[in-house]
């Protein structure tokens, strides 16, 4: 009786001895980065600013301001010195003495104009005299500005409040009408002035002085 082929043992398959070779190491590696030979240029040295030359003041005008400072020291302050113009700021206590000095020692002989400026934030009103000379030819083109300040009242009663300055009308007669105009337009009363009447406004004017910054025209 023949045996069934299905009962024959099946031989194990031979292992595949031809395996794939191991991967070769990658010998072509990326080259190391090259050092940056192009370094940034050294910073430029800071440019030196040209030295500012002191402003050369005109000699004649500086001589005028120097005489006032020499005489009064810290009682006066030089506002500016320029060609044909010198400004001196003065406290109200010294305005009369300075006016006498510029008349007697510096040969100024008249006030050309008097004006005023309202400074509400400073609570002051500034009065400015422009002084000149007819008799000294060296001063023919010169204007000496004398500026002083008076306290400013919020509710002014001109002539009856603290907004006052010494008058220099007795030093320079030509200051008479200028001081009167400043009195009525800004409310600065000039003590020692012989005629502190209004000049342009009616005597019964009851509003604020019209050149004060808080003055408002009715209907606007």
Stretches where pLDDT falls below 50 for ≥5 residues? none
Instruction: Return the average pLDDT rounded to an integer.
Output: 86
Fraction of helical residues: 10-25%
What coarse outline follows from CA principal-axis ratios?
A: elongated
User: Any guess at the CATH architecture of the domain at 59-191?
Assistant: 2-Layer Sandwich
- Total strands: 7
Largest sheet: 5 strands, mixed
DSSP strand content: 15-25%
CATH class category name of the domain at 59-191 = Alpha Beta
Q: Radius of gyration in whole Å, from Cα?
A: 47 Å
List the secondary-structure elements in sequence, H or E: HEEHEEEEHE
The CATH topology annotation of the domain at 59-191 reads as Beta Polymerase, domain 2
Distance N to C terminus: 142 Å
Number of helices: 3
CATH homologous superfamily heading of the domain at 59-191: NADH:ubiquinone oxidoreductase Nqo5 subunit
User: Which structural category do the helix and sheet elements fall into?
Assistant: alpha/beta
Largest sheet, spatial ordering of strands: 1-2-5-4-3
């Amino acid at each position: 009786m023949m045996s069934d082929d299905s009962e024959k043992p099946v031989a194990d398959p031979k292992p595949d001895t031809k395996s794939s070779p191991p991967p070769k190491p990658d010998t072509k590696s990326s080259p190391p980065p090259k050092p940056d030979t192009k370094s940034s240029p050294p910073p430029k040295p800071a440019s030196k600013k040209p030295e500012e030359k002191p402003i050369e003041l005109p000699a004649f005008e500086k001589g005028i301001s120097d005489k006032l400072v020499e005489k009064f020291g810290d009682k006066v302050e030089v506002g500016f010195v320029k060609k044909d113009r010198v400004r001196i700021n003065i406290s109200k206590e010294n305005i009369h003495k300075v006016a006498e000095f510029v008349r007697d020692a510096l040969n100024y002989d008249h006030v050309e104009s008097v004006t005023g400026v309202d400074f509400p934030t400073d609570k002051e009103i500034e009065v400015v005299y422009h002084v000149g000379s007819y008799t000294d030819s060296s001063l023919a083109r010169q204007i000496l500005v004398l500026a002083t300040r008076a306290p400013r009242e919020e509710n002014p009663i001109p002539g009856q409040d603290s907004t006052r300055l010494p008058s220099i009308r007795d030093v320079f007669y030509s200051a008479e009408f200028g001081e009167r105009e400043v009195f009525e337009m800004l409310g600065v009363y000039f003590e020692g002035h012989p005629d502190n009447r209004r000049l342009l406004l009616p005597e019964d004017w009851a509003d604020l002085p019209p050149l004060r910054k808080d003055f408002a025209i009715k209907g606007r």
